[in-house]
Amino acid sequence: MMAHYLESIRNGLASMPPAYIRGRVAGVSGLSVELAGLDPHVAVGDRIELCARGGRTVAAEIVGFRNGRSTAMVFGDLEGLGPGSSADIGFGGTNISAGGSLAVSAAWLGRVIDPLGQALDGKGPLPPGPHPRPLRAAPPEATTRARLGPRLDLGVRVLNSFTTCRTGQRLGLFAGSGVGKSTLLSMLARHTACDVAVISLVGERGREVREFLEDDLGAAGLARSVVVVATSDSPPLMRREAAYAAMTIAEHFRDEGKSVLLLMDSVTRFCLALREIGLSAGEPPATRGYPPSVFAELPRMLERAGPGPLLPDRPPGHITALFTVLVEGDDHNEPVADAVRGILDGHVVMDRRIGETGRYPAIDVLRSLSRSVPGCNSDAENALTRRARALLALYADMADMVRLGAYKAGNDPAVDEAVALAPRIEAVLHQSRNDHTSIEDSFDALADAMTMKDPV
Predict the structure, then answer these.
(1) For a Cys staple, 308 with which of 317, 343, 350, 372, CB 3.0–4.6 Å?
(2) Is 44 a residue whose pLDDT tops 50?
(3) Concatenated DSSP letters for 122-190?
(4) DSSP three-state, residue 79
(5) Is pLDDT of 242 > 90?
(6) Residue 212 CA to chain centroid, in angstroms?
(7) Residue 181: which pLDDT band, with cuts at 50, 70 and 90?
């Protein structure tokens, strides 16, 4: 009897129309919208729906409160919004809820999506998973998360040998514009020994998206990947959400015990989106125009990558992450680059001058390091890379004198060795984007180049 009564109550509740709390637009200034009538019912991060002229609806998010009114920013454009436009609480889509969550499933592999979980590839809607995950989540507890796993084959000789990466490690890829970081990311997406790749294109040029998917990533790379895209013309909320959505998808597969490769291009554009949001919400500019909230949010997002929590019944999953940092004017000490370098487990520096010589990937091994080395390599491998670095450093110091003829061969045996071997090492570091080299083969090629007696 009681079960029948409860069932009738559930059926009655299910048949009731959804309730909405309605406010109104009180003002629009720049990128922000002021709302009246919602203050007691909303908090920062809540999703609402704005009704523009002609019945068009626009998703928005509460980003702050000021002078007794709520401040929101939209996920679309502001066209058609004006004083009196309605603002409703209760917005929800197929894959993203009012609290900001994604219902990720394995069926998302091979798909290209936007930050709200909507398909961009014309293959139909994404099937939602059974358990939505919040876009904002805390990193695993530091004392209960697993340690880094074994070294990970990235498929790129210069990275495998000089900045060897372990499963669950986080590396920063620092480069100016046009140095080849997108091509390097595509090599990593195709060649890294992982179960799943999650790729976040934050603020990417619209014309380059298809080129990246079809030419750089390819069908084989896309098949095991989920690609989240927010182009440069997207509102700042969408560019910010592209980073959170990719991290949430990576966490879903990590919690299934998988080894996940997360590639984010770029953290700089994520921070620029945070800056636009913070300034629109009324935050004061601080370091080079960045409000303080940017440097508070950055570690919260980056720390979510890495080893997963320890599990009693099976090995933990890992998120191995590479975050690109677009250094403005090749200034590697600008605020975002400096903050990211201090948080991550190593940094890879791409140099424009190396690219101009025709050697790609244009990675400067003397300025790049992985904090997991030397612990993950053998003593012989560590000795090999130390000697190679020393030879490259000595050659870099003497290169101008050699070119000018100011150095005479035979004056210093160490310089003679560097002059003979440095070009051979550089030849090993050159690699086409379709070439894959394992960790063992990378060290073997480096050893061969440093022991050859005849010029290459």
Answers:
(1) 317
(2) yes
(3) SS-PPPPPSS-EESS-PPPPTTTBPPP-SEE--S-HHHHHHS-EETT-EEEEEE-TTSSHHHHHHHHHH
(4) coil
(5) yes
(6) 15
(7) confident
Per-residue CA distances from 297 to 105, 274, 303, 327 (Å): 27, 9, 10, 19
**Class of domain 19-91 (CATH, top level):** mainly beta
Q: Is 46 helix (H, G, I), strand (E, B) or coil?
A: coil
In eight-state DSSP terms, residue 360 is S
- The pLDDT score that the predictor gives to residue 92 is 42
State the pLDDT at residue 1: 60
Is the pLDDT at 88 greater than 70, yes or no?
yes
Q: Do domains 101-370 and 379-450 have the same CATH topology?
A: no
Question: Percentages helix, strand, coil for the chain, rounded to the nearest 5?
Answer: 40, 25, 40
pLDDT digits (tens, 9 = 90+) for 93-110: 434 444 588 999 999 999
In CATH, the architecture of 379-450 is Up-down Bundle (1.20)
Q: Give the torsion sign (CA, 253, 255, 258, 264).
A: positive
Q: Is the dihedral of CA 180, 185, 187, 188 positive or negative?
A: positive
Q: What is the DSSP string of 296-320?
A: HHHHHHHTTSEE-B--SSSPPPEEE
pLDDT number for residue 287: 81
Residue 91 has pLDDT above 70, yes or no: no
Taking the model in full, what pTM does it have? 0.90
The top-level CATH class assigned to 101-370 is alpha beta
The sign of the torsion formed by the CA atoms of 28, 33, 34, 36 equals positive
- Map tokens 């720390």 to a residue: 303
Amino acid letter, residue 135? L
Phi first, then psi: what are they for 224, rounded to 5°? -105, 20
C-alpha distances in Å from residue 245, one per residue of 11, 37, 97, 134, 227: 34, 30, 13, 9, 10
Here the tokens at position 314 are 């099976």
Provide the b/e sequence for 191-206 (b: ≥16 CB within 10 Å): bbbbbbbbbbbbbbee
The pair of three-digit structure tokens given for residue 81, joined into one six-digit string = 């919004």
The mean of the pLDDT values for the chain is 89
Indicate the length of the chain as a whole number: 456
How many other β-carbons are positioned within 10 Å of the β-carbon of residue 234? Answer: 22
- Spatial distance between the Cα atoms of 146 and 125, rounded to a whole number of angstroms: 35
Residue 90 pLDDT level (bands cut at 50, 70, 90): low
